[in-house]
């Protein structure tokens, strides 16, 4: 490249710069800043002052005024109300009253599309308790303490018991022989215990119900047969017991199907002279016997009163209701 041409161009540039310094031309144009704290209409303009031109501060640091000093066209909006924290729940008073009246899972909320962690863990715990109640076994120590001997139905495997309820309604041949040999014939009241679909219900409640019922029958001077325990039984197994022992009233204490609220609920089924072919309308039941429902001791005492009424009218179920009217 021609060195003379370079020198000439450099000279022209320097002369032009010196001319701008002498004339004091301010080439800075206003710079607009968006006020993000307000609406789009609240925009302010900030322009460099004349004494802030680069020409005046050659060789020094250029200082700019902070943006907060820009003129404000409107007052700042008040801060919005504080939103509830993530862990807080805004539940209406009506919903809270409903939640206080039921153990059901209502108003538990969600985290996105999923249940909350605490709710999900409680659900898994209750489900596991229900499974354990169905597949568990009653401890031999409890049966020994209550002096109950054990017999079986026509099913021994738990999976078959769940799939074939009809097998649980019939006693095995061995059970029939054992009951005939060890039990008193033709008692007024025959008490039978069965795990049904909840072994947990038997372990938690049957002792209090059984002892309270025995005391109630004794105070009413009612004859009681030899109690025993049927493993994997269904409600209708009381018909086979009625055929064998010929009692006037059979009381079957059996574990209820577990749910997610309670896996320890016990039921007491009663029937006047049960036999094969009896209809379900002739049975009666007192259910929901557990610590969160009917207290076991109270249920045992009440059963004595119901048995007395059955013997008085010689009927149970719908027939009893009709005769009472």
From TrEMBL:
<keyword id="KW-0456">Lyase</keyword>
<protein>
    <submittedName>
        <fullName>Ethanolamine ammonia-lyase subunit EutC</fullName>
        <ecNumber>4.3.1.7</ecNumber>
    </submittedName>
</protein>
């Amino acid at each position: 490249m021609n060195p003379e041409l370079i020198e000439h161009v450099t000279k022209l540039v320097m002369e032009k710069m010196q001319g701008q310094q002498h004339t004091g031309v301010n080439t800075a144009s206003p710079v607009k800043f968006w006020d993000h704290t307000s609406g789009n209409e609240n925009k302010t303009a900030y322009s460099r002052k004349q004494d802030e031109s680069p020409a005046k501060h050659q060789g020094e640091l250029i200082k700019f005024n902070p943006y907060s000093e820009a003129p404000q066209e409107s007052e700042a909006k008040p801060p919005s109300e504080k939103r509830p924290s993530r862990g807080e729940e805004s539940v209406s008073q009506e919903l809270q009253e409903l939640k206080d009246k039921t153990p059901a899972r209502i108003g538990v909320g969600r985290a996105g599309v999923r249940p909350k962690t605490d709710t999900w863990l409680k659900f898994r715990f209750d489900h596991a308790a229900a499974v354990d109640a169905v597949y568990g076994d009653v401890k031999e120590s409890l049966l020994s303490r209550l002096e109950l001997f054990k017999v079986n139905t026509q099913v021994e495997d738990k999976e078959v018991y769940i799939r074939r309820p009809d097998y649980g309604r019939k006693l095995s041949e061995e059970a029939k022989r054992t009951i005939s040999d060890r039990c008193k014939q033709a008692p007024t009241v025959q008490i039978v215990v069965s795990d049904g679909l909840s072994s947990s219900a038997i372990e938690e409640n049957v002792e209090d119900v059984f002892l309270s019922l025995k005391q109630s029958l004794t105070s009413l001077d009612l004859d009681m047969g030899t109690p025993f325990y049927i493993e994997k039984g269904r409600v209708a197994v009381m018909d086979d017991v009625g055929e064998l022992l010929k009692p006037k009233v059979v009381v079957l204490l059996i574990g209820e199907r577990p749910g997610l609220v309670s896996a320890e609920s016990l039921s007491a089924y009663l029937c006047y002279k049960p036999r094969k072919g009896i209809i379900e309308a002739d049975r009666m039941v007192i259910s929901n016997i557990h610590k969160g429902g009917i207290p076991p001791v109270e249920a045992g005492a009440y059963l004595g009163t119901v048995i007395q009424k059955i013997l008085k009218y010689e009927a149970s179920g719908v027939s009893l209701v009709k005769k009472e009217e």
